[in-house]
Write a structure and sequence with these properties.
It contains 8 helices and 39 strands. By secondary structure, it is of the alpha+beta class. The strands form 12 sheets. Strands 5-4-6-13-16-22 form a 6-stranded mixed β-sheet, sandwiched between helices. Strands 31, 32, 35, 38 and 39 form a 5-stranded mixed β-sheet that branches. A hairpin with a 2-residue loop joins strand 31 and strand 32.
Amino acid sequence: MNIRKATLMKLFKALIVTITICGYDAAQATQSKAVVIGISQYTEINSLRYADSDAREFSQILIDLAGYEKSDVSLLLNQEATKKRIVDEINKVVRESQKHPLDSFILMFAGHGIESTLTAANTRKSGLVKETNIFLAPFDASIDENNFYSTGNGKEVSNETFINKAWLARQLSAIKAKSIFIILDSCYSGTKSFGSLFLENEGYSIQSFGVSGSNNGVASVEKRALTLLKSSADSKSTPEINSNGRRIAYLASSKEDQTSAEYDELQHGALSYCIFEYIKRVRREAKQNERVDISIEDLYENITTLFHKTKVNGVPLDSAHQPLLVPIPDFSDMKDMVMVSVTGTNNQFVAVQKIKSGSLTILTRETMLSDIEIYVDGLKRGESINTKIFLPEGRHSIEIYLPKTGYRNTFIADISETNPFTKKIELRGELYVASLWLIEGVKSEGPILDVLVDGKKVSNSPMHLDDLIAGSHRVEVNYKDVSKIREIEIRPDSPLRINYTIVKKAAESQEVQRVRNVVF
């Protein structure tokens, strides 16, 4: 099991978060928008294996299976998902929806983030707990201790390189849409601080969570009195109370004090796996070309069931964390909301003579990789790369998986009897390693570092490799008596650059310099 986490250097305890947000019905919507974000590669934070592929697969479901226009789905992966780009995309939806209200909006984020409180460590005030106003980590989030600072009365921690939770809650509430779906597949994704801010903007508060049966993990919310909101000091900036009948589903993969996990055995984060697995099952069981609506009630019920029944090494997923659902205005009022509408692929009801098939060929330059696995609609196939695979006509979800490195690539194949489908894929990517000196706040070209990849010495920094197999690798750098090790993710379409910053500081008793910290 890989925990989706980030580490704050010398200042705070380990922070763990991956966020994923899921969809709604586009078939019935006249205007729908989605912002889908997945980050496995980070400049300073440890990598995640499946966050970007989970986001990519979700966007494919929206566009290829649920009827979204490609232009209405903004997909940001890895180095594209900088803080500026994320902020710009969400602000764009806010502006456009103010002019032309949407039927539906969906936000999906898969990546690192942090919990609502941090505990100082290795400082004079070791053990001091502080609230934080930061939530999600974009690609360029920095965990350099110099980027963390106290705000207000000194009891809150901030970092401008992260996404601010109050800003996110405010912007989501400002989006004018009949339906909004937010799903967080992350550690601490059910955090009360973000949820409370979002609900407050909508004019609601959480009263309790169900603990059994179909209501297990479902929040009971209460509409707050309008007079209470107006008495707030910043009531002028409070969005209009949710009185227009719009409905909101906020799905989190874990409680606020729980970490969330991604599993090599599942090739997904836990919540993403359960969402995709249920959608694939619905498609397999529905008649070919039959359109099936998946409601929030159906989705959540099956997610919780899969969390309990799916086991890794004999342990069910819900032993580590349990999903939560916050419905607005009330679960009974919005449980029939259609999350996605998909087409069935089951042809057992079709007369044999009417079944048509076509071919799929997945081409790659790789000749040395013999363990590439191919999945069609969630089921493993026996065929190999560079050979024809015959499938029934229609759209199929295809997955390419490399067990050795955990790399996963997904796409939708539109199979036709008359038009063979060919997909070319690249399975290698680039890695850059550089070093920098940090002297009195000024950075310059750094010293030469010994660089090892997967335990083998490959070069000295600055280093560039352009043929690393996609997936997880272990990078180690050595300088004098300091060694730093981190896990990285290589992607064919996203070159990764790692900067190691060596802090140069004169020793107190002699005119020599030593390494104080290496930031990564």
